[in-house]
Design brief:
By secondary structure, the protein is an all-alpha fold. The chain is globular. Helices cover 71% and strands 0% of the residues.
């Protein structure tokens, strides 16, 4: 099983490293690392290039998180690995962890990357869909009240382990949710400083003006 976990972690990292934000922007003649916030995530792509490219990047980043988390389940159902349901869940957790590291520290872009929100969404859609739904409700509420993507992402991430615990998820999933929440908060540390200073930019309804977050 240890070998399988290492394989899933590596595959998850490679999947997560696929720099969709960079590639979509590059197809439009834009170096996403040098415009807006310099982040290759869906939020910055949407601000710089508009709703269509931004939504596409969010979908693709979520899809690679779902693939990284779901590959062990697929492998088990196809008979490629033989293990219990709990081991499959742990393998999915390891795969998603690899995917998040790959997304934020992509080997294809000099170990630069995004903040992992969309990839987390995709992974938890596979591993803990009801917990993800609860966290998504928090994200939507915070975003529409304040129009801060960063604050919505931080509070949505914090809601995820709480939802996992309230739903009675096993310790591995609760532990993953705690780790993901901490990871998202750390990746948003510059946004937190701007929020506290009152200089964080709100997301415009046109999706194209706020340069930070």
């Amino acid at each position: 099983m240890l070998t399988a976990l290492l394989v899933f972690a590596l595959v998850g990292y490679v999947l997560g490293s696929l720099p969709f934000g960079y590639l979509v922007a590059r197809a439009k003649g834009v170096d996403i690392f040098s415009v807006g916030s310099g982040n290759p995530g869906a939020t910055n792509v949407r601000r710089v290039l508009g709703r269509g490219p931004g939504n596409l990047v969010f979908f693709l980043d979520a899809a690679k998180g779902a693939a990284a988390a779901g590959l062990p389940l697929l492998a088990s159902r196809l008979g490629w690995i033989s293990c219990g349901a709990n081991d499959v869940t742990i393998a999915g957790i390891v795969g998603l962890a690899g995917g998040l590291l790959g997304h934020s520290f992509s080997c294809f872009t000099g170990f630069r990357g995004g903040k992992g929100v969309a990839t987390t969404v995709g992974g938890f859609a596979v591993l803990l869909p009801w917990g993800l739904l609860a966290a998504s409700v928090v994200w939507v509420a915070v975003f529409f009240i304040g129009r801060y993507v960063s604050l919505a992402s931080i509070l949505g991430a914090v809601a995820l382990p709480l939802a996992a615990w309230l739903l009675g998820a096993g310790r591995p999933l609760v532990g993953l949710a705690v780790a993901v929440a901490a990871f998202v908060i750390i990746m948003h540390r510059s946004n937190i400083r701007r929020l506290l200073a009152g200089t964080e930019s709100r997301f415009s309804r046109s999706g194209g003006s706020a340069p930070r977050s």
